[in-house]
Amino acid sequence: MTFAARAALFLIGAPALAAQRADPWIQWGAHGIPVFTQTNIVPGDRTLGELRIVQPVVMLHAGALGDHLRLMAAVNFEKWTLRHGELAPGSWGESFVDRRHPHTIVHELMLSAPDLLGPLDGTLELFVAAGKGFVPFGTDDPMSRPVARFPVNHHLSQVLERAVALAGVRAGPITLEGSVFNGDEPLSPSSWPAWDRFGDSWSARLTLSPLQGVEAQGSYAWIKSPENRPGAGLDDAKTSVSARWERGPTYALIEWARTSVSHDVFIYRTVLAEAAWSFDRHRPYLRFERSERPEEERLFVSRFRTRRPLFENSILGVTRWTIVTVGNGVDLTPRSPVRVRPFAEASYVGIVKVGGGVFDPAPWYGRERGFAVSIGVRLGGGMAMPRMGRYGFPSGHGMPKHVDHASEGR
Amino acid sequence: MIRRYVTVVGTAVILAAACTGDGSSPQGAYQLSIAAGDAQTDTVGKTLPVVYDVLVEDSAGAPVAGVVVAWSVTGGGGTITASSTTDGAGIARATRTLGTVAGTQTAKAVVGGASITFTATALAGPPTQHSKNAGDAQSAAAGSVLPVPFAVLVQDQYGNPVESVTVNWTVASGGGSVSAPSSKTNGSGVARVTLTLGPDAGPNGVSASVPGITGGVTFTATAIVQPLLVKSLPITENYGIHDMYVRDGLAFVFAWNTGVLIYDVGNGIMVGSPSNPVLVGDVVTSDGSIVGGAAVHNGWWFHNPVTSEKKYLFVGQEGPSFGGIGTGSSGLIHVVDVSDLRNPQEVAFFHKAGSDSSGTHNFWMDESRQILYAAYYNGGVVALDVSGTLTGNLASRLIDSIRPGGAGNTYVWGVQLYNGSLYASDMLSGFWQLDTTGAQLTVAAGGNNVPERFSSDLWVANGYAYTGTWGFRGGNFGNAVKVWQIGAGGAPILVDSIVTADIVTVSDVEVSDDGKLLMFSTENGTNAGFWFYRLTDPAHPTFIAKYLVSSGVHTATFARIGGKLYAFGAKDPSGAALIILDVSSLDP
Hints:
Strand order of the largest sheet of chain B: 2-10-9-4-6
Largest sheet of chain B: 5 strands, mixed
Radius of gyration of chain A: 21 Å
Largest interface: A-B, 35 and 40 residues
Oligomer: heterodimer
Low-confidence stretches of chain B: 5-27
Shape of chain B: elongated
Strand content of chain A: over 45%
Distance between the termini of chain A: 42 Å
Structural class of chain B: mainly beta
Number of helices of chain A: 4
Shape of chain A: globular
Strand order of the largest sheet of chain A: 1-2-3-6-7-8-9-10-11-12-13-14-15-18-19-20
Distance between the termini of chain B: 108 Å
């Protein structure tokens, strides 16, 4: 086929594609989880229980020009519901520790062209995207995965809430993405990326999707000074490899990731495997995780916070967290647009010191092994939680198919 | 009868034509002049000893007798004879009693249309009362001179200020001193004295008394023992400011990747002062191939007594702690030539590399022996020969190094030379005395003596040492300052501890040059900031003041500039700044 013929096909093809689906189209969804969590992995040798609303999100997805132009937006309300973070043993990042930090209000605001050239590029598909959102690196947003509580490796396996511009090419089952973005992490739920730092960091991800619902990815990200917004901090080199299965009633993910801080000054590794299976209205799930994290000086006024901005390029040490979580969710509204899915999950938590440093978990927590239990209800309506961060993937290629693990497989 | 009538009427008409308004004499017919009594001086309220005499003459200059002269007071009050009649010599007399207001007093004599004024000077009477006039109820730093002198107003019975009265001044309380034991009143009746407040916080009293007057007046003032902020100079948060070295009115600010900033704070080179630091020069030292950049942390401006040079500034680079704090470290000693303060240049470096790789922290110098001692974290303590000209790699200048706690138990924060011994504060293994005989370093005493906390900075003075603590260890925060008695042989003996609530780290410790004041800086907590203790009993310091800084103070150092004692502090981010406090009141 000549180039001109491809161009003509592209021009007339857009309406044809739109005809398969309303054009322009728009979808929305809302999601939130009231959850009570209790754990004895708390600074000061005590047990703590808290009821919070986690992951309160309103999403809007829209497409136009035969889905050649797509908008993805997610507003996160954790600034108001998780002011002091979500009690979650092992969680760390953005000055929170042993609590998962609240995400920024504008969690995602991306404009993408999933198939930029239509038929012009033949068997290839070029795509671009830009806005505030996920960097093409690592695995899916934990919000879209079976376990309600975030994994410890969130800051090792995902890079999000950045000003990002990405481009990619897809050839059959192979997708290659590259991006540039700002290295600085958010300072607070209200913060925006440091625009003057846009482009100081980059990432690349290669995804292989041999079958529908089956994929493997390898990715790398070089992030300048994520911990220090003015840019004076150490740099991260992140590597991630994962394989994902999502077919029929089963879901499984296995991942390995490594973050090297400034040429191995500090190294944090993680392995994680999780699976879920749906039957009747039930969806039991399991997660095994072993992740390392930095230990930094805690604030006197809150043992769940660390000093920001950082003052030196040093840490107190590294700890390795082994967490095994089992849980089950029940769909109470299987045929309703409103989702009500209570769940319960329990975790074993083990902590060990890795290498040197002065941080010792035993006196800090009063123990090196403990538990965490959570009971909550996944509430939602409209569009289900998407995987996020796969902006170039058209429907049918994993994003945005709007996978909802709580109902998958029925 | 008719003729007589005409004669009488004619005379009356003539007289009427010649009379003034008072009807006593013909208008314009008289000339008045002072014959006596003018320009007398006497005390208020007194009758002048010389009566006022006015001479009345006619237009031809002949004295006129029998003319009635009217007298009246025109200024200053008092009384005067209402009227009198001229005698045969044309003189009329009046008695003048002065009014009660000191100063010029006037009265006049009037005849017809003519008048003349008598002037007298009324002096204040004897002092009968005194009162506070100015300076009462002031507050100022203890030991300082009050800005407004105490002033007493002395008055006579009528309230006139009395000059040249002696007022005696006595310090009644507070332990201060007055500028003179007595002073005389000036023309306004005011006597003044200046009070230098006593050394302690609290009320000061000064009594003023006047001989001959019953009772006295007491002035009060409040001595405040409080650091006074004179400057907060923002420093770029890259990562901010870590330490200062102040000498000869120059403040060397060590500001991480912003480098070394040299400020005139009283040197004169740029007419700077503590309240107005002026940047003289700056330099970013090399990163030495250490990740994270220059990471300028601390320094020492070497005044070489052998060569009389002030050429070299030693700069410590605090690189990342490989493996975590307590295990690994990195960073070089950089040598900067500051011969030209406006254009400092890095000229040499020392790197403890290879299998012994480690990074430097705080310095101390034996300037007379031209030896730089550097705390080297897990590398222990390093002694470096810095004599002569310094260029390039100074690896060959290494004299000796020692890990006092042994491998795995050494992480030295700071060192200080005192009485021939080198004292080292080790985060892991506590407080050590090292022997430097022959420049070789050996353990003399101490060590493994602070097991419950991580140690931090140190200072040795007055035969005592003070060491800070850091972070969290074994259930304890680093909220203590350990007080050590330095024994006869120099060995440290723990004698006391100062525990500060609601902080995590005591980050720096220093004693003032006169040995009277202990200062330490604190971080991470509601009591972060500067803390000051008096060393009247150096074994048991007593708290006198604090200056809290919410984000914390990383390091602090004293400097005496222009006769005043200042505390310089490195304010942590957010809002990193060089903070300068006037702490003279704490060290009277």
